[in-house]
Amino acid sequence: MKSDRPLARAPRGFIDRRARDLGAERTIVERIVPVYERYGFEALETGALEYADALGKFLPDADRPNEGVFALQDDDGEWMALRYDLTAPLARFAAANWDGLPKPFRRYAVGTVWRNEKPGPGRFREFVQCDADTVGSARPESDAEVIALMAEGLEAIGLPRGQAVVKINSRRLMNGLLATAGVTDAGQTLGVLRAVDKLDRLGLEGVKLLLGEGRKDESGAFTKGAGLQAAAIDRVLAFVSAGSEGRSETLDRLANVIGGSAEGDAGLEELGRIHQALTALGVGADRAVFDPAIVRGLEYYTGAVFEAELLLETLDEKGQPVRFGSLGGGGRYDDLVARFTGEQVPATGCSFGVSRLAAALRAAGRDPAAEQRGPVVVIAFDQARMADYFAIAGELRAAGIAAEVYLGGSGMKAQMKYADRRLSPAAVIVGEDELAAGTVTIKDLDLGRELASKVADNAAWRAERPGQQSLPRAELIPAIRRILDARA
How does it assemble (predicted)? Predict the structure, then answer.
């Protein structure tokens, strides 16, 4: 018979996160936020839902029926959508409160965002972002400062120099290139940007197909191309191949490809000033480089764009090599606030995908919460003695030590297994003998796990009871602290 019970499944692109995952994300945020604050950014939090027209239609997956967002209609007929990033809500906030804000307005934000797009390795439909933005400065130096902040943030989470890099480009350069190539149609321009954005995944040949008539993938699905002529395709491919290890050298190569267009020259000047500011800030080419292939998927960028890339080898759950690519990015979006006010307000900012950073670090063997610690477990022998067990747990908690009394219905062996599965540092054992003598027995589970990996004789192991000690009740807290400090 068909069951009416629902299947216990999570929607695609949505994941359940336990203590280890949440601990990793919390660690990343705790390391990045102080960097933002040292640069003078203040905290701001906006709501999860925005009116759909306020969010705008800027996602690269805009050919989907629901424009790549999760939307619902309010009682008054207004369409609302879960925010797909933290930048569009900032633009709405700045437009509504501009007169009372310090200018430029520098803010950082941490929050969950949602995108109704195809999930992939390390790419989810629900994830946490950590942003920093400057609204009200048109100076390229403000872009440079955000790039320097990104480079410092990557190091703060545990990616030393050489393990990640920020790649920089300017939309103005691409616009100048397309203008000299005779590309003026907005749809065709968007097609070029989408094609170039796939360079790291498809290579030059794949991008060449997408710049022309289109490309058929391994599954047989056909993606329509931008429809450029051969000469224009060659110019675009020469442009995206102009990068080099040095920022100055890349600028020289780009100057030869752009061909002297007004917007292209403006983009070159913009990158030149960014280069000078980065050099003054001590950010060399090992931390930030110019890469003409960086375009960023969101359509609201108007000038400099940048993207952080992990350089470490990463493996998926099956141990197979997988490329994570972008860990975060950003750019200049001078027209976003103007959607509300009609007046251009320059802005620039960056965003890290916290969930994505955690997944990438784990795949690279750099999990910031590799061993999320559990609480000290107080073993429960006798229902009549529960008050004594809770008194011990309360004493530990009052001393700032996470603790719990076992509240299941199992015996001693199962309780120890429970504590071990929780990755508890220690178990506190108080039986009738301990209560009568005013003592406690402490099992150092961290030491036990370490020694267990070296044991050769199980009988001797059980007889020796490694990591177990009995001591006066008054010495409980100092003894537990020694165990915690030894594994810190």
Answer: Homodimer.
Residue 464 is given by DSSP the state H
Euclidean distance between CA atoms 243 and 221, whole angstroms: 31
Task: Answer whether 403's CB lies under 8 Å from 440's CB.
Answer: no
Whether residues 288 and 251 fall in one domain: yes
Per the structure block, which two tokens stand in for 473? 């009740």
* Shared domain check, 245 and 157: yes
The reported pTM is 0.80
Domain end marker among 336, 363, 390: 363
Amino acid making up residue 453: S
What angle do the packed helices 230-240 and 247-258 form, to 10 degrees?
170
Q: What is the extent of the structural domain holding 427?
A: 376-486
Is position 47 within any domain?
Answer: yes
Q: What percent of the chain has pLDDT over 70?
A: 91
pLDDT at residue 409 is higher than 50: yes
Domain presence at residue 10: no
User: Do 394 and 343 have their domain in common?
Assistant: no
Q: Shortest CA distance to 192 belongs to which of 218, 227, 231?
A: 227
Does the residue 170 lie in any domain? yes
Is position 206 within any domain? no
Nearest-angstrom CA–CA distance, 56 and 217: 31
Strand 105-114 with 42-43, pairing:
parallel
**What's 172-231 look like in SS3?**
HHHHHHHHHCCCCCHHHHHHHHHHHCCHHHHHHHHHHHHHCCEEECCCCCEEECCCCCHH
pLDDT digits (tens, 9 = 90+) for 333-388: 998 899 999 999 999 999 998 988 887 787 777 777 665 788 999 999 889 999 99
Provide the domain count of the chain: 2
| pLDDT tens by residue, 241-295 | 887 778 999 998 888 888 678 888 999 999 999 999 999 999 999 999 999 888 8
What's the sign of the alpha-carbon dihedral 52, 55, 56, 59? negative
